[in-house]
Please model this.
Amino acid sequence: MTDILEQRQAASTSAPPATDQPAEDPGPAVQNLETIVSLSKRRGFIFPSSEIYGGINAVWDYGPLGVELKNNVKRAWWRAMVQERDDIVGLDAGILMAPQVWVTSGHVAEFSDPMVECTIDHKRFRVDELPGAEDLGPKELLDPGIVDRLGLKCPIDGGPLTPPRQFNLMLKTYLGPVEEAAAVVYLRPETAQGIYVNFKNVQSTSRKKLPFGIAQIGKAFRNEISPGNFVFRMREFEQMEMQYFVRPDAAARIFDEWLPRRRAWYERYGVTPSRLRFREHRPDELAHYAKKAIDVEYRFPFGWKELEGIHNRGDFDLGNHARASGENLEYFDPATEEHFIPWIVETSAGGDRAPFTFLIDAYREEEVKGETRVSLALHPDLAPYKVAVLPLLKKRPEIVELCHRIKDDLKTEMMAVYDDTASIGKLYRRQDEIGTPWCITIDVDSLSDRAVTIRDRDSMTQERIPVEGVKRAILDRFEAARAR
Ligand code: GAP
Model:
């Protein structure tokens, strides 16, 4: 019988997997983030929250197209992480949890960033985001003399900065009709804890054997000191997290296995491979729960930044929750007849950062007949609308009626839209700009030859197909896109 305790040391100190730094900077898909911000506003992807009241910093609302894109990304993640796997099941836990959860998880004591304040305009900044301080380690970031030593100044008005202090990122509210300390609860800063406290419930009801995972998508909240870069860092955001419970001696191997799998998911849905890389956290930058962490990073217009975190959390979470709650959270392995606290390998993706990345990476500008054509080369599974049905002559009622019949038939399977508010050229451009993969155009001939034109967004090629074959033709194209 293997001694599981003896293997823990080895499991947590496996050699780091190769991190793949591209030799050359591939450059961002879009030079200026403002291009994406303005397209998002103009076309109804993302709006500033509470805009008519001047907005609220670091919260964004998804419009009609944004919610479709975001739901499609979440569906694609669920498909890869739950539907296509036999070893992962889903969960939807509450945002509010017993306050003790966050004490036990270490968030109340540890979930903070070093912050400085300008003594003139009283604006606050994360120390590691100040020019000149980006590469400091955690000790230096909290060094009381660091501001003077590096000559750090307020990036807005050049004013003097206070020495750094820790700022806790947890958002609090009150539960029940009284506002007193006893009623304080936290808005979860990560969805993961809802999974840990349900480990026993899920394991016993699903009868899963190790290794197995629990996946969850949901809102998380952090009182970020310097939110920004559009939806990259917000105070209210979504996470798509999966916690994989493993034998301690298997944790290092399973951690390594999740790295290429998660990277492949972004590539499968169209992210340019050279704009993705892995970056391993230095020991001094590891989160309080992590034994090892590797980020999947993307080359955003504002630099290489974290898209998803993959963590070996050891037995930190289940061990602490077992001790603090008094519940036995051990797993009994019938094969080896051992009782032990499972270790956790976590994949933690952003439910906003992922759609944001797909949006940026899909952006294309090209010259077509002397004009700039803007298109979003989104994977058909992610595109908000799959098909637009367009009349060449909206004055002919028979044409409009046929358009609606085709669109209604498509709508039973997918998001389809009818549009007749501009000339056909403009309608194509509009659909290109929101990433609709296919347009179906009905013209006068369609009434006699019972055929329509299908136009491809990326190649702009057109093909004549029979009216009866429209749905089949679109579904075949979906299958082809999925198989690529
Ligand atoms: N449970 C582990 C965890 O929360 P994290 O690296 O702090 O790890 C995971 O967060 C992912 O959540 C990030 O890679 C990012 O995609 C997303 N995320 C974190 N903070 C965010 C914020 N303020 N705004 C938008 N997304 C955020």
Summary: The first strand starts at residue 46 and ends at 48.
